Amino acid sequence: MPNVLSIEDDEMVINEVIGVLSMPRYHVEVARTGRDGIAKVMSRDYDVVTLDRVLPDLDGLTIVAAMRNAGIDTPVLLVSSMSDVDERVRGLRAGGDDYLAKPFSPDEMLARVEVLLRRKPLSHAAETSLHVGALELNLIKRCARFEGQEFDLQPTEYRVLEFMMRHPGQVLTRTMIFEAVWGGRFDPGTNLIDVHIGRLRKKLDGLASQPLIRTVRGSGYRLC
C-alpha cells in the first residue's frame, strides 16, 4: 500500500485529501505544520508528499528545498491557491514535481498522485543504507556502524549524519545543514549545528584513527 504524507493545515482540505486518496487504498498521514512535516519526511520513507504552498510556520518551498538538500527524492505535489505561472515555476524550480491549484477536483488530485507514483525512482525504494568508507548508516533500522561496530546516535544526530553521508566530500554550509535537518531559515546566532557536529565528532573520533568530520574555516563542514 503506497504511503502518502499530506502537509496541510486546512482541515477541509485535509479531509478532502484523505477521502480522495483513501478510496484507492493509499495510507495517508497528515502533518499540520511545516516543522512536523519536515520531521516526518526526515524520519521515514513516503511514496508521495502533497504539500501546501503556504503554511502557518514555514513556506512550502522551504520544505521541498530542505528535502532535496537532504537527498530525499520523494515526489512532491505542491497544492496552492497561488496558481499564476510565476508561482508554479518557483515551486517546480524549488524541487516540486507537480503543482495543483486550489480549489481542485478530487479526480485531478488522484490522477496527479497516480502519475507521481509511476515516476517514483526505483533507486529510492531500494535504498536501505548509506556508506562512506568504513562508516555505514542503516536507513531501515536507523542505526550507525563504523568498521562493523555499532554506535548510538540521538535522532537529530542521525539526521545530521545522514545529510552529510548523502554529500560525502562536499563542503556543507551551516545554512544547508540547518535547512535540511531543522527546516526554516537559518539563524546565524544559533549554535545548534556546532553542538550536534561536536557530539558526532566525539563519537566518531572514538572509533576512527583519523577525523571524519572536518571544519572548513569560514565555509562549513565536510565529511571525509
Description:
The structure is a single chain. The protein is an alpha/beta fold and 224 residues long. The protein has two domains: 3-125, Response regulator (Rossmann fold, 3-Layer(aba) Sandwich), CATH 3.40.50.2300; 128-223, Arc Repressor Mutant, subunit A, CATH 1.10.10.10. The protein is 42% helix and 21% strand. It contains nine helices and eleven strands. It has a five-stranded parallel beta sheet, sandwiched between helices. It has a four-stranded antiparallel beta sheet with strand order 6-7-8-9, with helices on one face. The protein has a two-stranded antiparallel ribbon with strand order 10-11. Strand 10 and strand 11 (220-223) form a beta hairpin. Helix 1 packs across helix 5, helix 3 crosses helix 8 (174-181) and helix 7 crosses helix 9 (192-205). The chain is elongated, with a radius of gyration of 19 Å. The protein starts with a strand and ends with a strand. The mean pLDDT is 87. One of its GO terms (biological process) is regulation of DNA-templated transcription. It holds the Pfam family Trans_reg_C.
